[in-house]
Write a structure and sequence with these properties.
154 residues; alpha+beta; Chemotaxis protein chec; 6-stranded antiparallel β-sheet; two-stranded antiparallel sheet; 6 helices; 39% helix
């Protein structure tokens, strides 16, 4: 399980250290890195990536569906396989770094979201948290109702 919020600096070669606590949950030494829906990057284990990719590609007719083509162009096309080196660092390709304003010698935020990681520019992450405050409160209220209906905590 990948969880936690970590801050590390991107080095001059575009690499960022994946914290040991997260690395211990990663089988193998490869992550698939691609753009997210928000202004961050997703880093996924290969098996998770395969399942997502299969859903997006959707078979031979998918190329005739405009929404599917958009997802393919925005998520699948920029994806790159990146290895975690012996020091625990992953090299984020320049095009992906630039797309979310991650600069060398700059601190970034790594979030563990159970089955994948997110990589954020620290300023963009702070802005996201501020923008999403009311949505978070609504989501928490909704979750509370679901948990209550399911008998959680009784």
């Amino acid at each position: 399980m990948l969880t936690g919020e970590y801050r590390n600096t991107i080095d001059e070669k575009g690499r960022i250290l994946i914290p040991a606590r997260l690395r211990s949950s990663i089988a193998g030494n490869t992550l698939i890195v691609t753009r997210s829906i928000e202004k961050n990057l997703w880093m996924m284990l290969p098996d998770m990536w395969t399942r997502i990719k299969e859903q997006i590609t959707g078979g031979p007719g998918a190329m005739f569906n405009s929404q599917t083509r958009t997802l393919q162009r925005r998520i699948i096309a920029p994806a790159q396989e990146c290895e975690i080196d012996k020091a625990g660092r992953i090299n984020i390709p320049p095009g992906l770094r630039d797309s979310v304003d991650l600069q060398p010698k700059q601190e970034a935020v790594i979030l563990g979201i159970d089955t994948y990681l997110e990589l954020w520019n620290t300023d963009e992450y702070a802005a996201f948290l501020e923008r999403s405050d009311s949505e978070f409160e609504e989501a928490a209220e909704s979750l509370g109702r679901k948990l209550e209906a399911a008998g959680f905590g009784k």
